[in-house]
Design brief:
This protein folds into four domains: 83 residues; 85 residues, Nuclear Transport Factor 2, Chain: A (Roll), CATH 3.10.450.350; 121 residues, Nuclear Transport Factor 2, Chain: A (Roll), CATH 3.10.450; 111 residues, Glucose Permease (Domain IIA) (Distorted Sandwich), CATH 2.70.70.10. The chain is 25% helix and 32% strand. The protein contains nine helices and 20 strands. Strands 11, 12, 13, 14, 15, 16, 17, 18, 19 and 20 form a ten-stranded antiparallel sheet that branches. It has a five-stranded antiparallel sheet with strand order 1-2-3-4-5. The chain has a five-stranded antiparallel sheet with strand order 6-7-8-9-10, sandwiched between helices. Helix 1 packs antiparallel against helix 4 and helix 7 packs across helix 8. Bound molecules: zinc ion. The site of zinc ion has 5 residues, from loops.
Length: 438
């Protein structure tokens, strides 16, 4: 049985139960006795909770207060309840699901779907939903009032209805607690296999291999008996891991040479303080085009006053202006969106991704490798715009940051003034590993 059918069945069962509970309450009362109907209603949510149905009890001003309660009154209360409680439906996204399909199956209106997609233009979170993520729908009197997308334990996007003006959205990010874990291992077979044996995840092993790919060929250069040390920070909410992690430092002894990478102010450096990652450029277009709108997470809609964060930087470019990749990467999407227009997303390694909106023409395909400075598209005026421009976004671990000011690998070496601080960070990393050995 599909999840939705199960949910529907659950809801139906629940209301049958609720009604019978109310009937039982009445049956237990002496006939003709005055009943505090508020008390009877208050007993309801407990039953509901047990059935995993979450209902918020609104202030209920029962007209029946002080009257003699009969079966028909109770039945009408139950009917009222069914109408006036917000219903919550948890939907776990399945492979092959589309948002439109989910709305249709749940019987939710196309109007609310479009209102949500319109505000989602500012984050495009619903454009990249993945199987396993959860959507929590709250419906009140047949209308969708709230939608929550749970990307991870630490990252949610919440869309809330503000009546006729459509929806507002809010990104909820929990800092949680980052805990450090050190690992020491020996190469016995493949790096991924040896890293897994030492306690690292496959994702972390892949991250290391991609980070150091210019320094060492993991399949050709690595030898049995080589050793490695890794320091990982993992995010926790309470005792649960969110799935977000950060490789802080890695050091590999490959025969007689040492290859290492240390995270410092958002960039990986080697032991000597030289940047390991290919640097980014700040701007995706020539410097002659001015910024027409800056990154602003607190922007308000001029008419409705609703929060409409501007998660990117706009450049005043006429249609047909060459758009350049700001860093090396792989094209992860080329999409035509109702509001974002034709847009391209590039995955720049495992930490960063970049987006280019309102394009007139894409010059790359999904899956294609691109180099920093490569012409990837022509700017345009597609989707919802007030004029031709390029909207450019930089994301750090899935969250938009100000591309013009963020700590990104721009420098090729540690600044002379920061050498001492960098040395100190390095010795802290080494101390964490030494602790593990003793
Ligand atoms: Zn913009």
């Amino acid at each position: 049985m599909s999840l939705i059918k199960k949910n529907k069945l659950k809801l139906a069962l629940m209301w049958v139960l609720l009604t019978s509970v109310l009937l039982v309450i009445v049956a237990l009362l002496p006939v003709g006795d005055k009943v505090d109907s508020k008390a009877a209603i208050k007993a309801v949510p407990k039953v509901a909770t047990a059935l995993t149905y979450e209902a918020e009890l609104p202030l209920y001003d029962a007209n029946t207060q002080g009257e003699t309660v009969t079966e028909s009154t109770v039945a009408s209360i139950a009917k009222e309840l069914a109408k006036s409680y917000p219903k919550t439906i948890n939907y776990v996204i399945q492979k092959g699901d589309t948002l439109g399909g989910i709305f249709e199956t749940l019987g939710l209106s196309q109007t609310s779907l479009y209102q949500i997609l319109e505000v989602d233009l500012n984050v495009l979170a619903l454009d990249s939903i993945k199987p396993g993520q959860t959507l929590i729908f709250t419906e009140f009197e047949g209308l969708l009032t709230r939608l929550e997308l749970q990307i991870s334990l630490a990252h949610q996007v919440v869309y809330t209805s503000s009546g006729d003006n459509g929806f507002e959205f809010e990104q909820v990010t929990l800092e949680g607690e980052w805990r450090e874990h050190s690992y020491i291992g020996k190469v016995e077979y493949s790096f991924a296999g040896s890293a897994k044996k030492a306690g690292l995840s496959l994702y972390e092993a892949q991250f290391i291999a991609s980070l150091l790919k210019d320094k060492i060929n993991f399949s050709r250069d690595l030898r049995i008996g080589d050793t490695f040390k890794v320091l990982v920070s993992r995010q926790y909410i309470g005792e649960e891991r969110t799935g977000e992690n950060r490789i802080e430092a890695v050091s590999i002894n490959n025969r007689s040479r040492n290859i290492s990478a240390y995270l410092y102010e958002g960039t990986y450096y080697d032991e000597a303080g030289l940047s390991i990652e290919r640097a980014f450029v700040r701007r995706p277009v020539s410097s002659k085009y001015r910024i027409s709108s800056s990154f602003n997470p607190r922007r308000l809609h001029p008419v409705t006053g609703l929060l409409r964060p501007h998660n990117g930087t706009d450049f005043a470019t006429p249609i047909g202006t060459p758009v350049l990749a700001t860093g090396d990467g792989v094209v992860s999407r080329v999409i035509n969106h109702k509001y974002a227009g034709l847009y391209i997303e590039i995955s720049n390694g495992q930490t960063y991704s970049t987006r280019f909106l309102h394009l007139s023409k894409a010059l790359v395909k999904k899956g294609q490798r691109v180099k920093r400075g490569q012409k990837i598209a022509l700017s345009g005026n597609t989707g919802r715009t007030t004029g031709a421009h390029l909207h450019y976004e930089l994301h750090l671990r899935g969250r938009a940051v100000n591309a013009m000011t963020a700590d990104i690998p721009i420098a090729t070496a540690i600044d002379k003034k920061k050498q001492a601080a960098f040395k100190l960070a390095l010795s802290n990393y080494h101390a964490a590993w030494d602790e593990l050995k003793s």
